[in-house]
Amino acid sequence: MSLTSTDLHSSLKKYFGFSKFKGLQEKVIENILEDRDTFVIMPTGGGKSLCYQLPALMKEGTAIVVSPLIALMKNQVDAIRGISEQTGIAHVLNSSLTKTEVKQVKEDVVNGLTKLLYVAPESLAKEENVEFLKKVHLSFVAVDEAHCISEWGHDFRPEYRNLRSIIDRLGDNIPIIGLTATATPKVQEDIIKNLAMTDAKVFKASFNRPNLFYEVRPKTQNVDADIIRFVKQNQGKSGIIYCLSRKRVEELAQVLQVNGISAVPYHAGFDAKTRARYQDMFLMEEVDVVVATIAFGMGIDKPDVRFVIHHDIPKSIESYYQETGRAGRDGGEGHCLAFYAYKDVEKLEKFMSGKPVAEQEIGNALLQEIVAYAETSMSRRKFILHYFGEDFDEVNGEGADMDDNARNPKPKEEAKDEVLKLLRVVKETNEKFKTKEVVKILVGKVNAMISSHKTDEKEFFGTGSEKDESYWMALVRQVLVAGLLKKEIERYGILHLTLAGEEFLKNPRSFQMTKDHVYSEENDQAVIT
Ligand code: ADP
Which residue intervals define the domain Helicase C-terminal in the entry (predicted)? Predict the structure, then answer.
């Protein structure tokens, strides 16, 4: 199909009423119209849907859109039907349809009326649907939320794994469009491999959100008071506060209410009606704040969320990026504040310990990254974008001064000698202890485990006694993050040297330790120093 830019623009205007394409949309659409495999990586709100909707409307045949959530499909179908007189122009094909409805959908597809057919991967896998779709003219298959293919993504769906073989059965050379807002190189690799789209043209938009301000504060026992103070300073503004547990969601919402802040709780434990009511109250601005678990947010498009607070550290940088991404959609201010205590990380670790080993391994690796984010003293924006494989100039880049570290550089101190002492203890004890024992050995304290191994008789016992346990705990974490030590997965928590750690022992070099967080011995809560 040979189309000029004017044709494309007039179609855009005709179907969607927009006069300009957003970002990479036009280039993506041109590629799709040329029947090429296409991989679109754009942050949420970047305008991915239009990338396949417009070519689907312009092309002959029906485009299949694979999507993981019925609610998302329904929204899109409603939106498309809104731009056309024809109800049949877009359909969802799923197992909840009645026989009559299925018949109607199939009729519309066969008659060439349906341009977009939304299906969940489970429905696409059904033999009767494959048999039906084989016989109709398909323009392309769009795999929305393609990160669901990858275990390293934030929403792994095993059914997504089989898509390629199903698509192959639908016909020869059907173009595939993969779309995701997950930017990590690992996930992208998985998607390309799994969908066998090595020749796809990749369109990747920047994930930088220059209007978002990133901040991490130590989480103390006064975290509720800190949150109340923050919300009061931002009175009248919309905000989301994420908590890990449902219980905490309810408690915190109540604490806020008692303190005169209009807030509602939200989590998956409420029935659908209650959830819808609280969500509407937030969207309609009857309340300022929603205190929620991560169940809240998917598909929420409130443009003027002014802050996103994480009461507990999220399970990955990816989740953090997605959750904070709900702030400042309108381009205005968006403050992303995370409270961090290592204790929370241990909670998440414990939570994962019952899961299959492979899952734990991934979960822990992702967790180490978010710990590194929380503890880092470098530009947080640079850190996040680096994680997504994007280079960011922390001096001149857009939004360079928009984080706590950029505004208030944290003090650091040389810890080369201490790292050496730590690595030696791990090595000399034959890598059999967890952090707790290693730290005790360093400061020269005994427990049953240590005395049973007679470690207290060794010459390295107590070599770090000039520092306290909280110092060593912090150093272990930073050394883990720096990749000199790693935790064993099988007997989780046992410290091992990495190759980089061995190398450090042979050729010690400077190690800059950030002096920001200190953890008290009893409860491992951060205290501000
Ligand atoms: P994503 O799927 O990437 O999160 P959406 O497809 O939901 O993003 O698009 C986000 C918003 O941008 C929607 O409200 C959509 O209508 C709007 N949008 C998309 N393309 C354009 C455009 N070319 N001009 C103006 N608005 C657009």
Answer: 222-379
Residue from 10, 13, 22 to probe ligand 1 pocket by mutation (most atoms less than 8 Å from CB): 22
Q: Does residue 118's CB lie within 6 angstroms of at least one atom of ligand 1?
A: no
Please say whether the beta carbons of 359 and 489 come within 8 A. Answer: no
Which pTM value belongs to this model? 0.76
Strands 412-414 and 512-514: antiparallel
pLDDT tens, per residue, the chain with 529 residues: 567 778 899 999 999 999 999 999 999 999 999 999 999 999 887 899 999 999 999 999 999 999 998 878 888 899 899 888 788 999 999 888 899 999 999 999 999 999 999 999 999 999 999 999 999 999 999 999 999 999 888 788 989 999 999 999 999 999 999 999 988 888 998 999 999 998 999 999 999 999 999 999 989 899 999 999 999 999 999 999 999 999 999 999 999 999 999 999 999 999 999 999 999 999 999 999 999 999 998 767 799 999 999 999 999 999 999 999 999 989 999 999 999 998 898 888 888 888 888 888 788 878 878 988 898 777 899 889 988 878 888 889 999 999 999 998 778 899 999 999 999 999 999 999 988 899 999 999 999 999 999 999 999 999 999 999 878 987 887 788 778 998 775 565 789 999 999 999 999 999 988 765 443 433 444 443 3
CB 68 within 8 A of CB 146: no
How far is ligand 1, taken at its centre, from the CA of residue 206, in Å? 16
The two tokens of residue 135 are 């016989």
Query: Ligand 1: distance of its center to the CA of 329 in Å?
Result: 11
* Under 8 Å between Cβ of 200 and 36: yes
Whether 46 lines ligand 1, by a CB cut-off of 6 Å, is yes
Ligand 1 neighbour 363 (Cβ under 6 A): no
